[in-house]
Amino acid sequence: xxxxxxxxxxxxxxTFRAAxxxxxxxxxxxxxxxxxxHAPEFSGAEWKMVxxxxxxxxxxxxxxxxxRFERDVAKICGVAHGVALVNGTAALHLAxxxxxxxxxxxxxxxxxxxxATANAISHAGAIPHFVDSEARTLGLDxxxxxxxxxxxxxxxxxxxxxxxxxxxxxxxxxxxxxGHPTDMYPLLDLAAxxxxxxxxxxxxxxxxxxxxxxxxxLGRIAALSFNGNKILTTGGGxxxxxxxxxxxxxxxxxxxxxxxxxxxxxxxxxxxYNYRLPNINAALGCAQLEQLKDRLARKRALAERYIAGFADxxxxxxxxxxxxxxxxxxxxxxxxxxxxxxxxxxxLDELNxxxxxxxxxxxxxxxxxxxxxxxxxxxxxxxxxxxxxxxxPSSACLGAI
Length: 401
What we know:
CATH architecture of the largest domain: 3-Layer(aba) Sandwich
CATH topology of the largest domain: Aspartate Aminotransferase, domain 2
Number of strands: 16
């Protein structure tokens, strides 16, 4: 390549990056300060409800706001039971335990998800078994999983065994990435064929719907997160939701140290955890839940502005909700064309330098040293997507309507 050709290529790349930044400024305006990826918002009755906890003294793991929060979260997810917990990782851990995942088991999970999804499997003493995702949903690919199980797994005495490792495959753990629903119906059919429970990681998907059904209400049990960067927050917090009363009871029991009810005695019937959400955090969550409808509307308005703002720019696409789904657009996602993948890091540098917090997708889990030896399928889709995904500022306040 001549020096002139190198200069032309460099200028082309720089012009492309400048065009992306210009579109971002058109959508969000020139920032007065650094624009975070996803900031919490407190514009309702948060102060009043938290003060009520302080005035009453009900600030710990028992109180009326915990009960209300559990009921309201379950209703949003279209199920009967909610269990409020300290964070989403704890919710995933307990969900796996109550559906019967045991130490040494394997749990099917996408390789492209936040590390907490796999960590919860490890906390249960089990082993993540990584599967590829599909580009149209960003979530676990049911067809890839079907082909993989046909090759590596056999039913033996009513259990699905990975004949390469000898371990039982005990559950499927899909994750709705950035709030976009995974293709759940074929995944549920596959799970039923192998008699596997589906534990939804709906940490990012509160308010999202898959063919008219709420995320969190599609599998046997689901975990939610209310971390400070989620669409609603309790500061730190999470929840389990399920239609199964036995699973809900067991999860709540495990979350409260396994203590049996008694007027004064302390008796615990199994090794358990101190995972309950405090009432003061639940009060914050109750106030936030009252604003969910408005927040979802503003998130969708922001997504539409992104889609329109980048529609005429070659080399990039704003990821849109899968067909038949309604996403909460927790994080808006810019996907570079394959021939622009090499620009990702330079683009991230320039966007952040300009005052817009933008981030790549998480490191693929099979590349982390502590998960590098875990069983997995071939992963061509996520290995390609990882090079091309950039998450854009997505706070609800940016989508004022």
